[in-house]
Write a structure and sequence with these properties.
Layout: E1 8-13, H1 16-24, E2 33-36, E3 44-47, H2 49-52, H3 62-68, E4 73-75, H4 79-93, E5 99-104, E6 107-111, H5 116-119, H6 122-137, E7 141-146, H7 149-158, E8 164-166, H8 172-176, H9 192-197, H10 203-207, H11 211-218, H12 220-230, E9 246-257, H13 260-281, E10 283-294, E11 299-310, H14 313-324, E12 333-345, H15 367-391, H16 399-406
Parallel strand pairs: 2-4, 7-8
Antiparallel strand pairs: 1-6, 1-7, 2-3, 5-6, 9-12, 10-11, 10-12
Helix pairs in contact: 4-6, 11-12, 13-14
Bound molecules: thymidine-5'-triphosphate and magnesium ion (MG).
């Protein structure tokens, strides 16, 4: 059996913005590339490792970087491109891990616990991941492999670029002991002197201090934080990506459709799909969007903010019913789509919001009535999810689905 009861990867791209520039502009490869504002007044975002040997660093004024590295090639940043690369990167990570927690554009935690039977030992998997990142994106990354998030994050940064650093279970304290106090999470340049004044310059010093002694000198909260981490104790979970911005569904039809009843009928299964996906992923949506592409390929979208964050088909249907009033349903339509956006995690406290500007006026009704109605439908639809999961999706149909099957002529309506 494996010695690893928990495996966390932290992956961080090497000289991210600068490497993307070198990748996209081959003439920059092997050169000291400094990404920063176009004027001398800006600061350096990052620089290639070739520029780092001159002492150039992130957040340094461009003026200073020019002095340190006169031969440096200064390029303005292209945020859109970095964001696009980041998206591909995070997608690639999700091939390896069920839970990916992005920390910024170029770094993420991957929960790798339980992946050994599939991928083999974590060190080997980390190498495969590095190779996959290179083969797919032509970029290098460094990986930290550890039994928890804190150590994984420290590890990925230790031997850059192209580093692979493993801290095996049972070696946490010896791994951390020699590291300087600056490696502690949450200890910035302003706090470092407080530790130094107490003679604490390494994580090992924290390990050999007693918790009450630290609490007395640093306060309870900071003392507990640093003592636990220095001893390699970190139980925080990798939080699944919150990058989902919207959940949508759309269909293109062989024959154009038109008229409100037909469009409503076509929207119903899409709404069910979106609502089920919201519940499955643990989101509520604060906005809903309707998209229609007409036969002549012109596209119209209409959206509104919801009175309260929603995750039932019932609520989405009402909102989309309001949005349908805002489009021309008489013109032939080739595509209909809907999307829930502005997503929040399910646990987030729910508040009845006041109407936002631009909200459809028909939504105004008694908040209390709506709240009760919403809760009833949530319970109902969650129950349907559970029954469907257990007995299959054909087990339960809404009344309108049954009607559709039974009496062909009747078209289901949103207000059924
Ligand atoms: P980092 O991962 O901190 O830096 P890096 O990827 O450039 O270099 P390495 O990890 O190999 O040390 O940050 C990721 C990107 O975030 C970086 O490419 C540019 C941007 N960034 C800034 O814009 N300003 C900053 O002060 C820092 C630190 C980063
Ligand atoms: Mg980086």
């Amino acid at each position: 059996m494996s010695e690893w009861s928990r495996i966390v990867f932290h992956v961080d791209m090497d000289a991210f913005y600068a490497s993307v520039e070198q990748r996209d502009h081959p003439e920059l490869r092997g050169k000291p590339v400094i990404v920063g504002g176009p004027s001398n007044r800006g600061v350096v975002s990052t620089c290639s490792y070739e520029a780092r040997v001159f002492g150039v660093k992130s957040a340094m004024p461009v003026m200073q970087a020019r002095k340190l590295c006169p031969q440096g090639i200064f390029v303005p940043g292209r945020m859109k491109q970095y964001a696009a690369v980041s998206k591909k990167l995070m997608l690639l990570f999700s091939d390896f891990a069920p839970d990916v927690e992005p920390l910024s554009l170029d770094e993420a935690f991957l929960e790798m616990t339980g992946t050994e039977p599939l991928f083999g030992p974590p060190e080997k998997t980390a190498r495969v991941l590095q190779k996959r990142v290179w083969d797919t994106l032509e970029l290098h990354c460094s990986v930290g492999v550890a039994p928890n998030k804190y150590i994984a994050k420290v590890a990925s940064d230790l031997y850059k670029p192209r580093g692979l650093t493993v801290c095996a279970p049972g070696t946490e304290r010896t791994f951390l002991a020699p590291l300087p106090i600056e490696r502690m999470w949450g200890v910035g340049p302003k706090t470092v002197p407080r530790f130094h004044a107490l003679g604490l310059t390494t994580l090992g010093h924290l390990q050999s201090s007693s918790l009450p002694w630290l609490e007395e000198r640093l306060g309870r909260s900071l003392a507990n934080h640093v003592w636990h981490l220095a001893n390699g104790l970190d139980v925080r979970n990798v939080q699944r990506s919150r990058t989902a911005k919207s959940i949508g569904a759309e269909r293109t039809y062989d024959k154009d459709i038109q008229g409100r009843p037909t469009i409503e009928a076509k929207l119903l299964p899409l709404i069910d799909e979106i609502a089920a996906s919201l519940r499955k992923k643990g989101f509520r949506s604060k906005g809903i969007r309707l998209k229609v592409k007409y036969a002549d390929f012109t596209q119209v979208t209409r959206q509104l903010k919801l009175l309260a964050p929603a995750q039932t088909a019932h609520e989405l249907r009402r909102a989309l019913g309001d949005l349908l009033l805002k489009i021309d349903v008489k013109r032939p339509i080739r595509l209909v789509g809907a999307a829930a956006f502005d997503l929040i995690e399910e646990e987030a406290p729910q508040q009845m919001s006041l109407l936002d500007e631009g909200q459809v006026s028909e939504q105004v009704s008694s908040n209390e009535e709506r709240g009760e109605d919403r809760r009833r439908h949530e319970v109902l639809e969650h129950t349907l999810d559970a029954v469907r999961q257990k007995f299959g999706s054909a087990t339960l149909m809404r009344g309108d689905d049954l009607l559709r099957g039974g009496r062909k002529k009747r078209t289901p309506r949103f207000d059924d």
